[in-house]
Amino acid sequence: MKTSNPSLKHHILIGIVISLWSFLFAFFSRPFEHGYMDFQKWIYVSIGYSFIAFIVYIFVSLYQKYVYEKLDKWSILLESSVYILFYLLYTIMTYIYYKSSVIEGIYEFSQYLTDIMVNIILIFTPLIFFVRRYVFKLIPSKEECITLKGENKLDILKIKQSDLICISNSQNYVEIFFLENNELKTKLLRSSLKKIQIDFQFLVQVHRSHLINPSHFKSWKDSTTISLTQIELPVSKNYKNQLLSL
């Protein structure tokens, strides 16, 4: 499961939606009735539950941020841990609020868990899932960077994949053609075209001495030459069909 890590503002948005839903659920479903609980009392109860939902979710979002930055990845297991931590903290904090003088709840923790929290979990889980999924889609994906390495440890070029135009063989070196601030730049690395092709399989071979990034293909200049971004390259017969199939 590859997931972007939302910023704090995205998590605040999710927290607000969960908080609002928590208020509406508590106020309209009234999951418990202990003695005389009038309209004003349920307003207090609902505000308390919604506030706790918001605070707990923001805390959980900080946990997610920490784990994501530490591991630089996300998975179904880690996503599940978000829900577990959220419900664990939410259950404990709402039970404390439930037993306070505001509500004066009569359920023991085990009954509170089975009679109230189970229903809340069943209703909240789909909401949290879809809200998080929707907000994740709002986050622009980071453009993938690639790192080209030569035999020398200092021979490194890190660029955006979209900025790489082509790579040409140059004796014992490869010459990298790439864009930097929309200007054509080159860099020599001590490596082989074969190794580069194995490492970066999105590249297409058009000649025994040239690999291209197909996203920079512009047009055919003639039957043996292609135009790329700010550069032209020859195409050999052996690789022509491969290029035509793009």
From TrEMBL:
Signal peptide feature range: none
HTH LytTR-type domain ranges (all copies): 154-245
Lineage: superkingdom: Bacteria
Gene Ontology molecular-function annotations: DNA binding
Keywords attached to this entry: DNA-binding, Membrane, Transmembrane, Transmembrane helix
Coiled coil: none
ATP-binding keyword on record: no
UniProt protein name: LytTR family DNA-binding domain-containing protein
Organism: Pontimicrobium sp. SW4
Membrane-spanning residues: 12-30, 42-63, 75-97, 109-131
